Amino acid sequence: MQEQTTRIFTVAIMSASLLLFADGTTAQSPQTIGTSAPLQTDSPGFTGAVASKSVFRIVCKEKGIFGTGFLHKSGNIITAAHVVDGCPTLDIWLPDNTKMVSKVIKVDENIDLALLKPEKHIDAPALAIANTPNLQVGALISLWGFPAGYSGIPPMLSVGYLSGIDGVKTKSGKVVAQFVLNAAVNHGDSGGPVLLVETGEVIGIADNKIAPLSDTTMSALAALENQPSGFVYPAIMPDGTKHNFSEGQVIAMVLEDLRQQVQLVIGHAVAIGDLRAFLTKNGVDP
Q1: CA distances from 166 to 70, 112, 135 (A)
Q2: 255 vs 7, 217, 243, 266, CA distance in Å?
Q3: CA angle 233, 237, 241 (to 5 degrees)
Q4: What is the pTM of this model?
Q5: How does DSSP classify residue 129?
Q6: Is the CB of residue 145 less than 8 Å from the CB of residue 206?
Q7: Backbone angles phi, psi at 200, to 5 degrees
Q8: Could you name the CATH architecture of 46-211+262-281?
């Protein structure tokens, strides 16, 4: 099969280079020659060599929050703002399974982006940020992250397409444009890089999976969380402290956890335009 493909390719090149007509003249060579090439079936995995060294698990022990981040050429780490919410310092787990403390230096909640500064230099290749926000729906993308339930050291790969652009309301009420991905974006992937497979460049940041609840369900969860009656469950929090939960709060907590664990193949990502604007605004060359 490979030899047949090679012969066809060689004949096509020769035919394009020299077209003989009946009168013996030769067709003029075109001024430009297309440089497109067939997409390899394992193209999404090509970025794994860099991602395995430069995409990190981020953990906030104080609040039991975890997510994903990646190394930028500035030496800082880019992640989602909601991953670091209420956590001035975080643990960054490196590819050798050691951890490093990192401080939050810049946050923009409206577009859900944050910039972290590691306590020491991380010797790893940085992921490149794409130069242009002009992307076509249907572009093949890959996502690297640490979804819930996955305890591996290297980031997990998910593959899909840039399938649309959505308007998402932020905490302040502002509506921002976000990419819609039909890749597996799940709890823990937030902050992970979304790469354009064709170039290996970052075109977005995983933000959230699309798992909407009805207003009635949201109200029911809120009522459960505020329910003081019933048995009391003494829980040990991630930071080692103890906290008592009421019966309703336990039910709400379990339901929310189950919702987080549901694996969906659709999610939102912060768009490349907002990412580049965020970095530039904070004095970082994209």
Answers
A1: 24, 15, 14
A2: 59, 11, 19, 20
A3: 95
A4: 0.69
A5: B
A6: yes
A7: 80, 10
A8: Beta Barrel (2.40)
Six-digit token string for 159: 């593959």
Q: Which pLDDT band holds residue 241 (cuts at 50, 70, 90)?
A: confident
pLDDT confidence band for 172 (50 / 70 / 90): confident
Residue 273 has pLDDT above 70, yes or no: yes
Every domain range in the chain assigned CATH 2.40.10.120: 46-211+262-281
pLDDT digits (tens, 9 = 90+) for 217-228: 666 666 666 766
b/e map of 242-268 (b: 16 or more CB within 10 Å)? eeebbebbbbbbeeeeeeeeeeeebbb
C-alpha–C-alpha distance, residues 184 and 209, integer Å: 8
Per this entry, what is the length of the chain? 286
Instruction: Reply yes or no on whether the pLDDT at 215 is more than 90.
Output: no
Quick one: tokens of 234?
């003494």
Least confident segment among 63-72, 164-173, 210-219:
210-219
Average pLDDT, rounded, for the chain:
78
Residue 214: its H or E element:
none
Q: How far apart are CA 226 and CA 174, in angstroms?
A: 28
